[in-house]
Specification:
Blueprint: H1 2-8, H2 11-31, E1 33-37, E2 39-41, E3 47-48, E4 51-57, E5 68-75, E6 80-87, E7 97-103, E8 110-121, E9 127-139, E10 147-149, E11 156-157, E12 163-166, E13 172-177, E14 183-184, E15 186-187, E16 193-196, E17 203-213, E18 218-228, H3 232-248, H4 257-278
Amino acid sequence: MFKEIYLQQGGGEKMKKLGILLAIAMLMLVSVVMAGTCTISPASSGTIRGTAVINVTMSAETNATAANCTVAASSALSGDSVTFIVFNNTDSAGTNETNTTLNTLGRKDASDWVFSVTSCVNSTDSVISETCSVTGVTIDNTVPTCAFSSKASKGEYLPTDDWTITSYNATSGTLQFGSNPLYTLTKNAGNTSYSYTNDITIGMYTNVAARMSDGANTTTCSLDYISINPDRNSKQLIAVSEDAKKEAEPQQQPQSNGTSLLTLLAVVGAIVYFKSRKK
């Protein structure tokens, strides 16, 4: 009696929906292992070069055997990033480590690389809920270059002139005039040059140095005897005006030796003539 009333009121449909939800929940419990915090190497603040081994170890909370894990690595300073997969290369039951080799020669040097595990699965493709990351990893394969652009030693420049340094493989740079405080250079589009566009303190400097860094190495280039002079343009205009004035003035041509000799002979001849007439 009660069963008939329950079915008439739609109880059967509700039971079916409840059964489906329970089945889904069971599948999720089977496919997702208990969450844990894995371990990844290299360690934070570590340095890697060339071909490096990247290892991910499952946590004790899950005690899982991972078939593979996906790792995302990125550097804000260099703008570089890469995603790769680490595998369980031992194929041994119960082994909770995955690893792979990463060729860092194809990556840009920087000291702020972050490596993060984004997902892991076991041999049946069930998700292992593990998360871990390391920060401040340095990739160090190259040395930054350093060269002044459009500036030379023993030069005179305006305080408002821009100063640009051409540099490959750098992630930051500074500019220093003599013993003055350091100016921080700004990266230009293309990542191969850095500039300082604010006013420079007026003065005479025996040395101007640029220091370019990739976080692991620093390269310095310099200029000698630099003058920062606000009157540079006015002096140039005065010099140009003086040159133009000289060119515009008529130039007196010096008399040739032949003309002077003829004049002298004419004067002597006239004197002899007049003396002979008086006699």
